[in-house]
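Need tokens for this chain, all 405 residues.
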Amino acid sequence: MPPSTKRWSTVPFVRSRIRRTAEIRKKDMTMPPITQDIADKRHIKREDYVSCTVAFIDCKKPGSDTKENYSIIGPGVTSSDDQIINLPEAHGFNIGAAAMPHGITNNLHIHFTAEVFIVQAGEWTFRWGSNGENEINGKKGDIVSVPTWIFRGFTNAGPDDGWLFTILGGDNTGGVIFHPEIIREAADYGLYISSDNRLIDTSRGDEVPPESGRIPPMPDEDVAALRDVSRSEMMSRIVASDARDFRPAFIDQVLPTGGAQIAPVIGLGMTQNRDHAAPISNAHEFSAEWLRIEPGQSVGPFMVDEKMVLMMHEGQLQLDYIDGGNASVQVNAWDTYSVPAGAMRTLKATGDTATEVLVVLNGDHRKRPVFATEVIAAAKEAGLGLDASGFVAKASLLPSYGRAS
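Here are the structure tokens for all 405 residues:
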């Protein structure tokens, strides 16, 4: 049957793949089918996001008091016990968001793990340096990765309400250190941060911890010792929306519904295009890449060994689990979805416009998507195969190397 009309039957492949993975890892990795109930619980819709306006020590500072913090996957760096976490399950990274009206500022602070901003809406000014003396601007679709151990802050500089999604490295981010001026000013409002990163608010009856039990302002000599990050270095850590390098990404690109494209952003993602290179290459504890699927296109069936988070930017995406459980989820713009490691799935654009989604996978290593055997066979009929490194190549050029163990 020609590839254009062949129907994929992947359940036998999935079961054998699970068995092989279990043998390699020397432990039972048997994965029961994902039911619709399980699939739905991993879907965080836009309307499910819950804001917290008292997440940080600057929450009463005029000009910062109406910002909203969201913890979508993992706690992020919130200092508030009032913060709602949509999906607390460990992923190796945290997903969050900040929503702010025009003119509102998130004040200077330090992160210990990677912090990446994805501009979902609005126009933003990002600043960095010991006193926030450096600035860059970001617009919808831009991504900014800020180095660790430098002060950074941001302001909604656009005329309307703005929204930033964030990715933070690691399960434990270590919290943040706010600029000394912010910590001193917060004390005037009765706000302190305990040494275990909990917001202390005397207006609600909290007791002020002793100096040994709270985070003091960073000494001036330590502020002065923080490294300088030049404008050129920071510009190299920005992937602008109009600078994304979209190219066909997968072995199924020659199939009738294939052709999805990836534009790498951070680290070694799951692309099977050997010409792809991420503009931001230092370790973040996760990778991030834009996936664009045109109407009528799909990817898969395929699996990866890592947890995958889909941060929907534009369009509509249908995710079908191909494991016998018949679970299916419609993911819309602004939604966040977490796919379990090892789950066989297809991704299909279902709207009238292209779907753009930021795909985040845990770990700094290169990820290896495994497509259903029927997809591999159909691609080979059409002239494509995968080389020993897992990159797409002309099938007629690939030898069968029989000496490998």
